[in-house]
Amino acid sequence: MRKVVLITGASSGIGLALCKRLLAEDNELHLCLACRNMGKASSVSATLLACHPTAEVTTVQVDVSNLQSVFWAAKELKQRFQRLDYVYLNAGIMPNPQLNIKALFSGLFSRKVIHMFSTAEGLLTQQDKVTADGLQEVFATNVFGHFILIRELEPLLCHSDNPSQLIWTSSRNARKSNFSLEDIQHRKGQEPYSSSKYATDLLNVSLNRHFNQQGLYSSVVCPGTVLTNLTYGILPQFVWTLLIPLIWLLRFFANAFTLTPYNGTEALVWLFHQKPESLNPLTKYMSATTGFGSNYVTVQKMDIDEDTAEKFYQNLLELEKHVRVITIQKSNHQS
Predict the structure, then answer these.
(1) Cβ–Cβ under 8 Å, residues 326 and 133
(2) By C-alpha distance, which of 10, 14, 3 is closest to 43?
(3) How far apart are the first and last CA of the chain?
(4) Average pLDDT, stretch 160-182?
(5) Which of 150, 195, 227, 294 has the greatest number of beta carbons closer than 10 A?
(6) Ramachandran region, residue 236 (left: φ > 0; alpha: ψ -120 to 50; beta: rest)
(7) What are φ and ψ of residue 10, in 5° steps?
């Protein structure tokens, strides 16, 4: 029987590179591409099948920032599949990133230059907005929409005799200092991306605590510093032209500069081959690349308090109850 792999955000960047690499590892997979733009998804699907004709590649439309879209996609997936072996929760946004120029140039001439470029700590702020569901967009896209998707897909994921894996795309930019249980959506702050990635790490720990005995395991990954549409939007093109030689040089001193989506998927592909029972839920698996371009996986113990993770999980459950009521009301009104 084919293994079934669901990937959100599969039409570009890390998600697209992951699709290509997984099919190179196992060309008998059934890949399901979960994307907002079905035109792009169909084009990617056709290209993947042309290169791997023995695989099965399907698509499902989902915008994880829109809860109605998530519910519809989950319903469709439950009609198509009896189980999902892997779910890569990869879709994410960093809207309107603003660079702190003063911090950038200060960091360039300090001993923290490598750390600064590896984590973007203190460099970036974002301008968040509110979705039609009344949620902060970054939180909804990077965390809550995926959480609802998992909750809806539990019948396809929880089989104690044959474990399933959740694999989240997190970040080195996941900072405890940018997250608050009193403001889980980061309404009051200026670094919603960092907050959302730390929230992802917390959720990963809680999911393992609640679902391991039911055969569902969760892991988090950092793809490293990858140059994608998301990162290219941070700076003007001429600045990137000036910085890229420096970034390539930094690869000889730090392994975080994976740079290409292919390299960035190293840890995601590595997890595809691991027995989930053997993985540490408090560990973040990091894609790494040497100065000469060799890829490998390294690990980092996460700065996570398990009590905080549990409280966050309970907050999500309460929020879920609230949005389900609203979604039902909207659906009834539309009908």
Answers:
(1) yes
(2) 10
(3) 40
(4) 94
(5) 195
(6) beta
(7) -90, 0
Do 33 and 42 meet the contact criterion of CB atoms below 8 Å apart? no
| Averaged pLDDT score across all residues of the chain | 90
The pLDDT confidence band at residue 122, using thresholds 50, 70 and 90, is low
| Dist. CA 9–CA 93, nearest whole Å | 10
For residue 43, pLDDT beyond 80: yes
Residue 262's pLDDT is: 97
- 194-201 average pLDDT score: 97
- Paired with 99 in beta bridges are 124
Are the C-beta atoms of residues 19 and 44 closer than 8 Å to each other?
yes
Who contacts 17 (Cβ-Cβ below 8 Å, separation ≥6)? 260, 261, 262, 264, 265
What the block records as the tokens of 187 is 């309404």
Token pair recorded at residue 145: 């929409």
Residues found in the chain: 335
Query: Could you give the CA distance from residue 235 to residue 250 in angstroms, rounded to a whole number?
Result: 19
Q: Is the pLDDT of residue 236 over 90?
A: no
pTM score, two decimals? 0.91
State the burial class of residue 229 (Cβ atoms within 10 Å of its Cβ: 0-12, 13-18, 19+): exposed
3-class secondary structure, 283:
strand
Distance CA 295, CA 62 (A): 32
* Amino acid residing at 26: D
Q: How many CB atoms lie within 10 A of CB 96?
A: 12
* pLDDT tops 60 at residue 335: no
By CB atoms closer than 10 A (0-12, 13-18, 19+), residue 298 is middle
